[in-house]
Amino acid sequence: MAMTLSSGSINLLTRRVFYSKPNIQAKPVSSLRLEGRTVASSMSYDKELAAAKKAASLAARLCQALPLTLCFLCCVNVQKGLLQSDVHSKSDKSPVTVADYGSQVLVSFVLKRELPFESFSLDSGDLRKQEGQETLQRITKIVNDTLDSDLACNEFPLSEEDVLDAIDSGKSEGGSRGRHWVLDPIDGTKGFMRGDQYAIALALLDQGKVVLGVLSCPNLPLASIASSDRHAHDKVGCLFSAQVGGGTYMQSLDGAPPVKVHISATENPEEASFFESYEAAHSLHDLSSSIANILGVKAPPVRIDSQAKYGALSRGDGAIYLRFPHKGYREKIWDHAAGCIVVTEAGGVVTDAAGIPLDFSKGRYLDLATGIIVTNKKLMPALLKAVRESLEAKASAL
Ligand code: AMP
Ligand code: MG
């Protein structure tokens, strides 16, 4: 559902936050080279991964500090403390909240603190203007409230100028050269405002490849969402992390030790369940349903917002993710970069509808043929066949 700008003057927040560092020295573990370029999988990104986990966890804490109370948006619950004036709409009419900005500031702040040799570009935006003052004060307050709860932080409190600098840090366009941090400060803002699933999604691109990804999912149950045990879903808050060649791990956001996770190994579509967007405007539910029928999936679709779907898939809560946006929609890299590596490092496969792996090296957009499909290696050939047949049937029905 599109939201209108309720008050204030900010009409755009980029979901993309790229912190670029074209000349960074990656740490070679072994010196594999391919066509004169160092192969990303030979690098260790331990330090960057640790910083990314810290950043995404702190951003989750900020988002969680806005629990449910306010009745808004056609009587759907939204996050407590999230005032109507905190919700703005971007140029594409999708909502953005002060929590998006706050998350962005914290991620930027932590990455800069933990990786001091990274260079960050600065630029100014609408919040520097007079009409953005009220929103800026509000963001500064929620960021400082969150940092206040992080005892390890001594660069506190942040000034409004610090906040503006952090927000303005992301102006890179990505691409196939150098390193770029890719952030969706709140992926699934609509889910966030409903009190459903959302994720803080942070990834690092190195020479156009995703080399690490972190998904912080504050509302995702620690136990499988496939569990029918009512109490299994009481404990929520998951942090997924992966680096190239290192597998995927999940831990609770309250700091329990990470455990390695794996995608479902099922080969039988009758046992498989599939995930898709909660929002029908984001993905063609009838097309997914036709694909699932052809494939022989018996279970009804599991509809979840955000890249929490990739996280849940990486630990085997379901076996398939189908995403078919409406005609004309262009997928952005920040909506898939972290999720993609979280799933592939857990043993999954992520491709477009034609079976071609996603290419994150082209800048902000993925520019795919039709859609995105995700499953394990064994089910993928049958899934691709079902996708092809459904798309053909849809085309011939026109
Ligand atoms: P999901 O919850 O999986 O549908 O994904 C949420 C993301 O979908 C948001 O972060 C948006 O960037 C993206 N999005 C927004 N509008 C559309 C659209 N019309 N079609 C597909 N995705 C969209
Ligand atoms: Mg998003």
From TrEMBL:
Q: Does the keyword Glycosyltransferase apply?
A: no
> For Mg(2+), which residues are the binding ones?
184, 186-187, 335
Q: Name one GO molecular function term.
A: inositol-1,4-bisphosphate 1-phosphatase activity
Write down the chemical reaction(s) this protein catalyses: 1D-myo-inositol 1,4-bisphosphate + H2O = 1D-myo-inositol 4-phosphate + phosphate; 3'-phosphoadenylyl sulfate + H2O = adenosine 5'-phosphosulfate + phosphate; adenosine 2',5'-bisphosphate + H2O = AMP + phosphate; adenosine 3',5'-bisphosphate + H2O = AMP + phosphate
Which Gene3D superfamilies does the entry mention?
Answer: 3.40.190.80, Fructose-1,6-Bisphosphatase, subunit A, domain 1
Q: Which cofactor does it need?
A: Mg(2+)
Q: What is its EC number?
A: 3.1.3.7
The answer on whether this UniProt entry bears the keyword Protease reads no
Family membership, please give it.
Belongs to the inositol monophosphatase superfamily.
> Function of this protein?
Converts adenosine 3'-phosphate 5'-phosphosulfate (PAPS) to adenosine 5'-phosphosulfate (APS) and 3'(2')-phosphoadenosine 5'-phosphate (PAP) to AMP.
The name on file for this protein is: 3'(2'),5'-bisphosphate nucleotidase
Supply the source organism for this entry.
Answer: Escallonia herrerae
